[in-house]
Design a protein that fits this description.
By secondary structure, this protein is of the alpha/beta class. The protein is built from 22 helices and eight strands. 57% of the residues lie in helices and 7% in strands. Helix 16 runs antiparallel to helix 17. The longest helix is centred in the middle third of the chain and has 28 residues.
Length: 514
Amino acid sequence: MSQSRISRPSVITKTGAKPVRLVPKANLRAASVESQRPLVLDLDGTLLRSDLLVESIIALLRRNLLMMIPLLFWALQGKAVLKRRVAERSYLDVSLLPANDALVAYAETEKARGREIVLATASDEIMARRVAQRFSFIDRVIASDGKTNLKGEAKAKRLCELFPQGFQYAGDSHADLAVWRAADHVIVVEAEADVVRKVAFLGRPMTIFQSPSRVKALLKGLRLHQWAKNALVFLPMILGGKAGDPHAWQLAGGAFVALGLVASASYLLNDLWDLPHDRAHWSKRNRPLASGRLPVATGVFAAFTGLALGLAIGGWVGTGALLGLLAYLTLTVTYSTSLKRVPILDAVTLGTLFTLRLAIGVAAVGVAWSPWLLTFSMFLFTSLSFAKRHVEMRGALRAGKTGQIAGRGYQPADEPIVLAFGIAAGIASVVIFILYLSNEAFRNTALAAPLALWAFPPVLMLWIGRIWILAGREELNDDPVAFAVKDRVSYALGAIAGMAFVLAATGLPAGWLA
């Protein structure tokens, strides 16, 4: 816990559940009077780690994308009108929205001391009152009314009229500076450093609720470890005999980065679309967007920025790669909005998305298509997708759930069927790879020693078997790829496979397999 003084009289710096109050002796009487003044809480980004308007709009679009048209019409009529119309039609479950637990505990303590707790927000009154019902310590609600957007100067004026004796105010953004100027005590909740610096110049007593790193939250939301999947774009280049071509590496590298950006953006879009289901999930509720550590607005901006950059790089790589990226994006958006709730088809769709990575690699470097390789990819990654569903169902069974899993088309009772499909798909992928070796690899003149590829079937069988055994023991992360990135055995098997590739491409030492 840290303590600091920012300019004048008394400062409260909050880093944990209990604030440290530093008050000069001469101000003890003033502090006693201050304790009787109301505590006013902002809502968006303060009491809640979320934005009600953005979340409500996403909830509307989740039910009907055509709502985009009236949303634009309402926005032209002003922010207050937009908020009221959205609030009247909102399907948002406010009970699932992430709250700032430290601020909630602080407000509950102040309420127990007899202080009046007021919720003052620019969100519409309809939504604000729904949120207020969730927190028993709130005594009064002040919010936008469909005509006036209660933000900044408008909020400061209203609070000064209602509480001429003074008030404490908790906020988080630049828009709250006008209110902090009118407040007797400033409470800064997980604000950006620039906001904290500006508030410090006001010379008010302060309480600071420190903010978790949003950069770390964004990086986690982008799931950069999933970029390991995109290494598949290099496989067609290696099998096609272009491993020694610098230009081919340049094109494949561009495809790798482009696919990574588009995939990361699609992960954010998926998480935005799936917010209510993730918040109800036993592990996904800790994701950056679901937990509120990454603001929804930041997630939206990062998603569309990533898409723009990824598609631009894909266009530079070539038309075929760009078309592959667009197909990947279309399929992943369709998956997020509907296909993920269709049993069996959801896993097949994920397998297809993996196979599209190979197709993008083929298009990027211009090598011949291999139906065997694409089919192998479909079955292998469909098996891994079933493993992910299997883990989710085991988690639901452990939690005692019997109904449909939130956001999925499965029920815990489907677990044996998913297990059977997943293991069958994994074994089929090994068989298909053997058929590829027998029917195509040895005819590939680009490979110096195709016999080295026979190391792959046993390596694949061992790795797939390990994935499913650990899934059955509930020792597997709910994402097999994320697990493999951290698993030493997977690294060892991957090293063996890598050496086999090198030998296949460059040739075996003289006398081997003679």
